[in-house]
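Render this sequence as a predicted structure.
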Amino acid sequence: MNIKEASSEAISADPFRVRDCTLVAQATGIRAQNLRELRNGLMHAAPSSIYHHFWGRFLRAQFDEPEYNNDFASWVYHALNERALAERLSAVNPANFGDFASLRGELVEVIESRLDLDDHVPWARGDQQFQFIQSQIIVLETGFSLEDPLSMAAAMGVMAPGSIYYHFIDARRRTPGHDNDFSRWLTGFGAKWETAREALRAIDPYFSSLAELREGLTDVMHRFAKEN
């Protein structure tokens, strides 16, 4: 498929440059052996580390469906055997917080509410420390560009997972208003694509895999491409 194939729609925006990305993980030196140390680590970890432990799983090779939606919840369950706390941490959706300070505060509050229940502090075995990791995103040019919304509809279903991550997930971290790149670009094509823009914005990526996310985005673009 030639994703630069012209359509009948008048172009009113610059071409959309499709980018790919990968994450390079880096150790922070912050570790936790028990629940109190996890709480303390969260209080001092850089925003890039908290970001990694929520979103980095999307670009990690995984051979089964993760039981929990972020690394904190997964460690609390598997290393500390604290199922109820793991479920509370897993329910924390980073998309609902306007900044990392608020997200950090919510995580700390959830853990402190568990620590306040009794004097027992759950510990992990020596080989099950939680390692706070941060990551740096490496952006890659694909050489592909999209001329209009119809070509985007045709291309969405074959975009690489890294492209979906960069343009829909990472975009919310780096753009004004925490928007995604697809909706921002569609703004240049006028009011008739407004509903499509809002439908894309309504998709919550946190509880999906990249494959599921790409399918949802593709469905939206195909539906509105038929109407336009």
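Summary. The two ends are 21 Å apart (CA to CA). The CA atoms of residues 167 and 181 lie 5 Å apart.
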